[in-house]
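Please go through this protein, sequence plus structure tokens, and consider how the sequence yields the tokens. Keep your notes short.
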Amino acid sequence: MDYLQNKYDVIVVGAGHAGCEAALSCARLGAKVLLATLNLDNIALQPCNPAIGGPAKSTLVREIDALGGIMGEAADATYIQMKMLNSSKGPAVQALRAQSDKKEYSNYLRNILESNENIFLRQACITDLIAKDGRITGAIDEFGIEYSARAIILTTGTSLNGRIFVGLKSYSAGRLGEAAATGLSESLIKLGINIKKLKTGTPPRVDKRTIDYSKMKVQPGDEILNFYSFKPNRPVRQQYPCYLTRTNEDTHKIIRANLDKSPMYKGLIHGVGPRYCPSIEDKVVRFSENPSHHIFIEPEGLGTYEVYIQGFSSSLPADVQVQMLHTLPGLEKAHIIKPAYAVEYDYVPAVQTTHSLMSKNIQGLFFAGQINGTSGYEEAAAQGLIAGINAVNYMNNSEMLELSRSSSYIGTLIDDLVTKDIDDPYRMLTSRSEYRLLLRQDNADARLTPIGHKIGLIDDAQFKYFRDKQDAITKESERLKEAKVSATDEVNSILAKYNEHIERGCKLAELLKRPNITYSILQEIDCETRELNLRRDIYEQVEILAKYEGYLKRQEIQVNQAGRLEKFKIPENIDYMKIEHISSETKEKLNKIRPKTLAQASRIGGVKPADISVLMVLLDKHTFAKTEI
């Protein structure tokens, strides 16, 4: 058997959230996969916040599930709290968040990996890549053992030349208690790949037995549960609360007095940190007008006393962290189990990859996760899934899966990474998508499950379940457009409870469009609607489609208009440096990114509308292909 000779189809380097999705997607599509990681006990580890989801991120998780990935299923199987954020707002910004049992989540993914006969786990540090004639052919580990493969996916997280900082002390490590991955950066540089540095950090963990929760505000989970996976029969588990406390002026005084001990402010860290998840010292300095900041106290799991101090990321010395913590209400006697720290690491700017996440320099070499300059488990998992699918497509000489911005948050994420120069860890936000009303977490299955089934990651049984759901949504939406309710005293007495009234009979669909009316109210006033007894996931879709019909149609028109630029394909061999009437800076940017379409070119930072007009005329003049994508 080939694996006995260290011959594999795909090698996945790193077993974090990106690596797990990459390995599983390759294996489920029939590839033999070597999954190499520094520590097999840390598979799918949540080294920072023990949670999945949140604003925009929950949409990524639902999209991963709709395509056939594993993150949503794992989050559903191991949650200790489920909460729908922004529940009082519109569906475009609502976001599910699961507080996870950290160890249980990791074990769940490891069991899935180990039970797949196409996946071979190995605890090893890959230090060198082998390429021939511009194609990847294998890798070498720290012991000099050589592995051959037709494709390699790098998902190294923060391990690549990682260095941890606690105050002015630092040492080589990818994360606390785990060695850094060395050698691989140098190998990438030899292959002509540019390397830069980023920084991230994590808060301290404390012993829950030393916390006075009575001084904090309890944050319970939802009574009515929502789940990530679109599969039926998700597990209902007991939920546990989180808690809220706040910093105060005493906290801020200690921070300001010790900034000279911060490696960031002393210039010891050169990598840029995450803009949307700053350290507590950054918050105090940048938002000096704010007298306090929220701090959430979150359990790391049911089998441990460790709790996570969300919002308290820091790189200050350990003794200063103790002083800071003891100023927070409820944490006056808190015992730190693990200190907060910052980590600086190497990454590969993703402008060097295509939308398939394959290197432009080396065929068969893919990148996914933090190595592409992102932050967050969800962003990493989404990239891992796409990289895994495309590694198999590459081996089979099949068309690459390249999702558009209008189809998904995953498409938006990858397009931003490969088109724009990212200089701080990229985090998915709802504001990054111009089509966020169409790309909601609730309709990810409608958008992407057909693609997942076509690829082969969604089985026939799950696809039938999906089709039945979509048929039910369509059927009920059409019925409500025809069914009428009369303006009887009985109906109006029910509507009065919701500050509504009808003067004459009207269609149920029209009534449902009113802000105060929900589908459950239609069940109260209409016998047929009540007797149908539709599942919640079905009637919620019916309600959203009815209430936002006009807005959805308007955004669909925007998608079609933007799609005109997508039809203009740019030849791969075009010489931008010879084009007249555009600036040298623009030529350099276009030459660096090598956009495939005018639409992608228009999204490159610094490329002006006038430049796009010049390119459009050029493409028309030479009658380059303008076929549908």
Remarks:
- The domain at 8-199+345-455 is CATH 3.50.50.60 (FAD/NAD(P)-binding domain).
- Confidence is low (pLDDT under 50) at residues 623-629.
